[in-house]
Predict the 3D structure of the following.
Amino acid sequence: MKKTIIKGTGRYLPSRLVTNEDLSRWMDTSNEWIIQRTGIEQRYWVPEEGGVGASDLGFEASKIAMSRAGWEPEDIDLIIFATLSPDLFFPGSGCLLAHKLGLSSTPALDIRQQCTGFLYGMATADAYIRSSLAKRVLLVGAEVHSTGLDISTRGRDVAVIFGDGAAAVCIERMETDIKAGILASCVHADGSLAESLMTVAPASRENPRLDEKMLKEGKHFPTMDGRNIFKNAVRRLPEVAGEALNKAGISLDSVDLFIPHQANLRINQAFAKSMDLPESKVYNNIQRYGNTTAASIPLALDEAIEKGLLGAGSTVMFLGLGAGVTWGAVLYRFPA
Ligand code: UT7
């Protein structure tokens, strides 16, 4: 049977370290508030002068993942690029990444599913692989949030959360009868909550898409009803975890590690509590990177592999909820 296997992972963080103390100088916030409400201690941002887009970070992460997988760019059948912060309004960052990799006709698609971009990307890669449309898929999650944040007290609830970063995963078809690869994927969306976390402009429904007034009102910055998103995450994550376990026909105990999206340490602690899991089974690195949205899950995966928390035969669940709102879970088992 065709199975969808992770062959290599890689991550890349820009070098500008931004601490909570730095943010406290730019807006009315404090290290204590940020740590207590989110768990975040620091994050990395691209250089202030600009010039670095999501595809640049994605390119660096891809090179690492591909060298670990033993891939050359020509081996790639499909690029899936998950981001909410594309280099350009259009075309998608996947096309830009393909060009940076030296490819001139490999298909590339962008996934605009925010915090669940990696989950939707895994589900899409799995569908392509199992239907024989592709044998090797490069899935990238990359974000440059920092150039789009309101670094003033007006934007403090959102600005303190986000970090820039990228991670890439080389996904390959394997013919095997062992129970390995993507065991189940479940993805969902509820657009009735779209306004709970959004960036309004530039917008096709506005004419012009962005003007002086909108800029002055900060319509180009993200806004969030944090409490509503928080409540939804705490409800949906255990629900979708159960759905994925049922679909795969495996028990909670057989999952070695849960890698949730890194939106807020408190959300992940609430998830662990409601599933009756020891906190050691739920991987967190938001303390060091902040919320890197589509990059957060693969970034954590790359670290967990590096730390030896995952390896041959291990079972991991990826899950998350974010803007859309969208939510989902993917269960994956490494080949033994
Ligand atoms: O990845 C995308 C998905 N996003 C999420 O999952 C985010 C989910 N939500 C959250 O993580 C939390 O709701 C936040 C961290 C965004 C906010 O934490 P909260 O505990 O829900 O705080 P709050 O929004 O209820 O605000 C509490 C107070 C308010 O002041 P008053 O009205 O009580 O006087 C805010 O104005 O904290 C104030 N506040 C801040 N104070 C210092 C909001 N942001 C800040 C800040 N520094 N950065």
Observations:
- The radius of gyration is 19 Å.
- The chain has a mean pLDDT of 97.
- The chain has eleven helices and 13 strands.
